[in-house]
Amino acid sequence: MEATDTNNFNVNGRNKSSVTVIEKDMVTNIQELEARAIETKAPSEAPFVAPEVPQDEKAAPRKAKKPLKLILAGLGVGAVVAGGFGYRYWQFASTHQETDNATIAGHIHQVSSKIPGTVSEVLVNDNQLVQQGQLLVKLDPRDYQNKVEQANAALQAAQRQAQAAQANISLASQTTTAKTAQAQGDVSGALAAISTAQAAVEEAKAGIPAAQADVQQAEAGIPAAQAQVAQANANLQKAQADFNRYNALFQQGAIPRQQLDTARAAYDVAVAQKSAAQQAVQQAQAKLASARVGVAAAQSRLAQAQEGVTSAQAKLAASKGGLQQATAGGQQTNVNQGQYEAAKASINQAQASLKDAQLQLSYTNIAAPAAGRIGRKNVEVGNRIQTGSPLMAVVNNEYWVVANFKETQLEDMKPGQPVEVKLDSFPHHTFKGKVDSISPASGAQFALLPPDNATGNFTKIVQRIPVKIVFDPASIQGYDSRITPGMSAEVSVEVK
């Protein structure tokens, strides 16, 4: 059996001790036999052939018979011992696979900073035992505290903008509703005023013909009144002539006074009729003037009614303009709504920025990612570190063995089989464990430059497959704090 990584079999503690004793005994016996053979100077290839000796040495064969028997006895014992050893070796080798190409592996957590900063405190030392979440390093937090305050101020500003936009929405909505109602009322009033003004125009138009008819009638009454005046003048002249004649006759005494009085009365009637006729002419002229005034009033009413229509139409246009403004106010409400939505988005963005700033601030406290011991600490107070800079490592107390078996040793190997582990650091203690899993590929396939066997220079080499072996917790009790990743190990797997 080879003493290096080329071993194909392993030996457990009990069997290995017995085999070692047998080997020592066999070597001792062989050495004794060789010494005796040298002393007797007997040939080893043909011990039963009598050699030719001189005459003075004829008594030597008798003396050599006893050493020869001892040699044969020793060879027989050696054969028995070798047979027993070979049987034990064969029995052990047929049920175990071993290798010394094995090392201890474990979880090594690299501790680094997620943010750049200046180290203000280092709270651990090399090889110190730490717990998960324990504070390891502190960075200067002032820059990140300022960022948190800035993000908080930006959040408050965004919230105020949102409140203002929401108030503008409410105010614009109320104002728009009131303006819309007022504008609609103005439009309705303007339409009613237009209807009233148009009715007044129609009424005024209807009054003009009547007034014009009165004028025509008054104009027609003036000639009749003037004719009556002329007739009254003629009657007055006749009555006056009759009165003058009767008065002369009465003065002459030709007629009685009665006739004179009759003539006088007729004359007075004629004077009264003339006066009445003149008054009738004046009345006809006054009626004509009044009729003409009525026509002017009717025309004035028509003009006023038309102006009322124009004014009502202008009011309607103004009311429609107010309604459009109210509608535009509704669009302003939509604009305010958009501003409010933008303000809410700004709030969400500010909240995200605040959370990010708070998270960055929390990164100034660097804690242990897992329980274990500190190793490779290379950080000191005052160091200026960058994102991802390695500060130290935390080595977990969970260990396992990675044994690289030859591919020819894996025929009967499977998870769950018992394993014995010997560590070079603790050669007098045998650890127990079991096969956890077998790697899905050889170590060469995981190398940085995997071999390419299609280049024409192929040489068949037995590959090694990593096998993960986990310790029995009871077997490493008392050694768990002394075992470290990277230790060399020898493993023996019981495959049958």
Shape assignment: rod-shaped
CATH superfamily of one domain: Methyl-accepting chemotaxis protein
* Distance between the ends: 20 Å
Order of helices and strands: HHEEEEHHEEEEEEEE
Strand content: 15-25%
Average predicted local confidence, pLDDT: 78
> Count of DSSP E strands?
12
The main pleated sheet reads as: 6 strands, antiparallel, barrel
Q: Helix count?
A: 4
Structural class: alpha+beta
Our Rg estimate from Cα atoms comes to 71 Å
Q: Can you tell me the CATH architecture of one domain?
A: Orthogonal Bundle
- Under CATH at level 1, the class of one domain stands as Mainly Alpha
Low-confidence stretches: 1-24, 37-54, 56-60
Q: Helix proportion of residues, in percent?
A: 55-70%
At the third CATH level, what is the topology name of one domain? Helix Hairpins
Strand numbers in spatial order across the main sheet: 1-8-11-10-9-12
